[in-house]
Specification:
Length: about 325
C-alpha cells in the first residue's frame, strides 16, 4: 500500500542524484504498512525500489541506513540504499526520507525446509553481530509499546476488553520470564513478506525498521509466527528447520529453551497489539479491523514441539 504518491518527475530527480539511467516506468508495489514502495524501471533495463518512509523521521532513517551497512557487512543479505550526491543514502522530501534500493528479483519466502533452515542461519548470524552502540533498546513490535496503547485508550476513552487483557498480561510479564536472557541485535519482524527466497536459499532480508537490542530468542519465535504457519495451521517442520539452521551457528541456552513458550505467547500478543493499534486506532474502517484476532486465535492452539500450551489470555 502507498501512502505517499510519486510522479515520474519526482522519481527522476532521485535517480539523477544517484547517477542512474533515466526513468522508463514507475509503479506502486506492495510491501510494508509503514512506508510507500515503488518499482522504478530504467531505460538501461535496471530496476530499483524507491522507498518513502511515512512513519519514520529522516533522522531515524539515517540511523537505520548505518545499521544496514553494518548488518550487510557481516554477511546478512539485505539491500543497502544507493549512495546519492554528497555521499548520502537518502533525500528528504517534504519531511519524509526517500531512498533507492537494489531490486531483488525473488519471491517471498515459501516456507520450504531449506529456506527455513537458511533463514535460521542468517538470524543467528545477525544475533552474533556486536552492538556498535547505535541501536535502540525499544522494540516497536514488542511489549515495550503497549503502555502507549493504554495511554491513548485512556485519553480517548476507547478501552476495550482486548486492551484490558493486554494491560493485565503486561503486569504478569516480569514474573514469567527468567532474568538475564541473552540480548543483542534482532530484526523484530521476520514475516514471510520481509524475506525473499528461491531455490532453497534466502536472497534478501528486508525491512529492518524494527531492528533493536532485545532478547535474541524472541526473534526466533517471531520468525516462526511470521513464517511457520500455513493456512492458519502451525507447521512443525518449519520450526524444526528454523531451529536447526539457527543452532548450526548459535546454540540456545537452557534458559532460552525454557523461555520459548512464554516468549511465543507474548510475541503473538504483540503482533495482535500492533495490528489492533494500526487497524483499530490509526487506520480505521478497513477490512483489516479484526485482523488482530487472527493472532489471538492462535493462542488456543497447542504447540508441543515448542512446549507451548494454551493458558487463556487476550481475546
Amino acid at each position: 500500500m502507498a501512502y505517499t504518491e510519486v510522479d515520474s518527475e519526482a522519481a527522476a530527480a532521485i535517480l539523477k542524484s544517484a547517477g542512474c539511467a533515466p526513468l522508463s516506468a514507475v509503479q506502486s508495489i506492495s510491501g510494508g504498512w509503514a512506508n510507500s514502495n515503488y518499482l522504478l524501471e530504467l531505460e538501461d533495463g535496471e530496476r530499483l525500489v524507491l522507498k518513502i518512509w511515512d512513519e519514520r523521521s529522516p533522522k531515524e532513517v539515517n540511523r537505520l541506513n548505518s545499521h544496514l551497512e553494518l548488518i550487510a557487512s557481516h554477511g546478512v543479505p539485505t539491500p543497502v540504499p544507493l549512495l546519492l550526491e554528497g555521499g548520502r543514502r537518502m533525500l528528504e522530501v517534504d519531511g519524509r526520507a526517500w531512498m533507492l534500493l537494489p531490486f531483488v528479483d525473488a519471491p517471498w519466502l515459501a516456507g520450504d525446509r531449506s529456506s527455513m533452515k537458511h533463514l535460521g542461519e542468517l538470524m543467528a548470524r545477525l544475533h552474533s553481530i556486536p552492538d556498535d552502540g547505535t541501536f535502540i533498546s525499544e522494540y516497536t513490535m514488542g511489549t515495550d509499546v503497549w503502555p502507549e496503547l493504554f495511554e491513548r485508550a485512556e485519553a480517548e476513552n476507547t478501552w476495550s476488553p482486548f486492551l484490558r487483557e493486554l494491560e493485565a498480561e503486561l503486569a504478569r510479564l516480569p514474573n514469567l520470564l527468567p532474568a538475564g536472557l541473552p540480548r543483542g541485535i534482532i530484526h523484530g519482524d521476520l514475516f514471510q513478506d520481509n524475506v525473499l527466497a528461491s531455490d532453497g536459499e534466502v536472497k534478501a532480508v528486508l525491512d529492518f525498521e524494527d531492528v533493536c537490542i532485545n532478547v535474541l530468542a524472541s526473534d526466533l519465535v517471531v520468525a516462526f509466527i511470521g513464517c511457520g504457519w500455513e493456512d492458519g495451521v502451525p507447521v512443525e517442520e518449519r520450526w524444526t528447520a528454523l531451529l536447526e539452521g539457527y543452532e548450526s551457528v548459535r546454540q540456545l541456552s537452557e534458559n532460552e529453551r525454557a523461555a520459548l513458550p512464554e516468549l511465543y505467547y507474548y510475541a503473538t500478543l504483540s503482533v495482535a497489539a500492533w495490528r489492533y493499534r494500526k487497524f483499530r486506532m490509526e487506520v480505521t474502517g478497513t477490512e483489516h479491523s479484526d485482523r488482530y484476532k487472527l493472532m489471538t486465535e492462535r493462542l488456543d492452539i497447542p504447540l508441543p514441539f515448542l512446549g507451548y500450551q494454551p493458558r487463556g489470555g487476550a481475546r
